[in-house]
Specification:
137 residues; alpha+beta; single chain; 2 domains
Length: 137
């Protein structure tokens, strides 16, 4: 059995990460999913949050992702998400402004005035970026 997992994180516009790792954890709607070599095949939803990629030397790379889907099979994990970025690349102030805009839309609007689900999703993405950047500072 292989000791590594190939992981690809892709968005509609770019490949965010492609490489091998000893383990991967990614956010689901009901908590974190953990995948080690030899994991059973599955397809799951991905929730906005942090992806943890740990190598054989116990170094962890963290990515922030938006919602999407994950496919796990044959020692490969493919995350197809709306957006993704390395925690190091997050613009904290921009994420705070996005969260504030989403909160304002939710506070002022009604279901007729705005797309409530879209505003909630924008808030979830912004808060995931803020939390991730706060952890890496």
């Amino acid at each position: 059995m292989s000791k590594e997992i190939r992981v690809r994180v892709i968005t509609p516009s770019q490949e965010v990460w492609d490489g091998t790792t000893a383990s991967v954890r990614y956010p689901g709607e009901d908590g974190l999913y953990g995948v080690l070599p030899g994991h059973a095949a599955m397809i799951t939803p991905v929730a906005p949050g942090l992806v943890y990629l740990r190598d054989d030397h116990n170094h962890t790379t963290e990515l922030v992702v938006a919602a999407g889907f994950a496919k796990v099979a044959d020692n490969e994990v493919h995350l197809a998400v709306d957006s993704g970025e390395d925690v190091e690349d997050i613009d904290f102030e921009r994420a705070e402004r996005a969260a504030q805009r989403a909160r304002e839309r939710l506070r002022k609007g009604t279901a007729v005035d705005i797309d409530v689900a879209r505003a909630r999703y924008a808030l979830q993405r912004a808060l995931a970026r803020i939390r991730a950047k706060g952890r890496s500072s």
